[in-house]
Specification:
9 helices; alpha/beta; globular
Length: about 250
């Protein structure tokens, strides 16, 4: 059995773009999805047609039980070599004084705790200190972590700020154990996440605020993620790479 890479939230958008770029005959991709089975299975079929290998595994990263099941499934297909912590949620545009506790809790359960627990399971398997052979973890942050997203998604921005700190801390913690930990901070990207936040046209509406005067694509972000996971980035850890058109 070959190397295994787990990609959370991979049925669409940036996660799916990463899967397409990483697909190889000797590598198994674990395509995690929360609810869109049709999209996940379609991606698995697409990868198979290009000679790659992938399986779809349902799981909500806001649930520790689902995360454990996800990594147990990954173990059945080979040695874990990488994790892309891509799964994340965005809620409707609100001010902080309008947000419910349940909204904020869910945001942090998925965007922060989910990434922590997935990384925990990955480190257990990849750390040379624990008998592994090393590997890579790439977290998905957001430019919102730097901008704050006032009057829109402060909870989302705060969750991504936590990811920035988590990336740096974990990278230093496991640097001697063969594991590199980095993150990508996308700006305004043309994906379905804007629709889930109640603003399907937001990417186009934001063009004037972006120095390059256009939104980015999921593939442009995925190219950065895949580079960070590759041996071309072998001396890079603790780094957060902005892919934001200069914003």
């Amino acid at each position: 059995m070959g190397d295994v890479i787990v990609i959370t939230g991979a049925s669409r958008g940036i996660g799916a773009a990463c899967a397409r770029l990483l697909a190889e005959p000797d590598r198994m991709l674990i395509i995690n999805y929360a609810s869109n089975n049709v999209a996940a299975e379609a991606l698995v079929s697409e990868i198979a047609k290009t000679g790659g290998k992938a399986i779809a595994v349902q799981g909500d990263v806001g649930s520790e039980a689902d995360i454990l099941r996800l990594f147990e499934e990954a173990d059945r297909h080979g040695r874990l070599a990488g994790l892309i912590n891509n799964a994340g949620i965005l809620d409707v545009s609100q001010r902080v004084d309008e947000m419910s506790r349940s909204r904020i809790s869910r945001m942090f359960d998925v965007n922060v705790l989910g990434s922590f627990l997935c990384a925990r399971e990955a480190v257990k398997r990849m750390s040379t200190k624990q008998g592994g052979k090393g590997g890579t973890i790439v977290n998905l942050s957001s430019a919102a972590a730097l901008l704050g997203a006032p009057n829109n998604y402060v909870d989302y921005a705060a969750s991504k700020g936590a990811i920035d700190t988590f990336t740096k801390g974990l990278a230093l913690e496991v640097a001697e154990e063969g594991i590199r930990v980095t993150a990508v901070r996308p700006g305004v990207i043309d994906t379905d996440i804007h629709a889930s936040g109640g603003q399907p046209g937001r990417a186009e509406q934001m063009r004037a605020a972006i120095p390059m005067k256009r939104e980015g694509s999921a593939n442009e972000v995925a190219e950065a993620v895949v580079w960070l996971m590759s041996q071309k980035a072998s001396y890079v850890t603790g780094t957060i790479l902005d892919v934001s058109g200069g914003r």
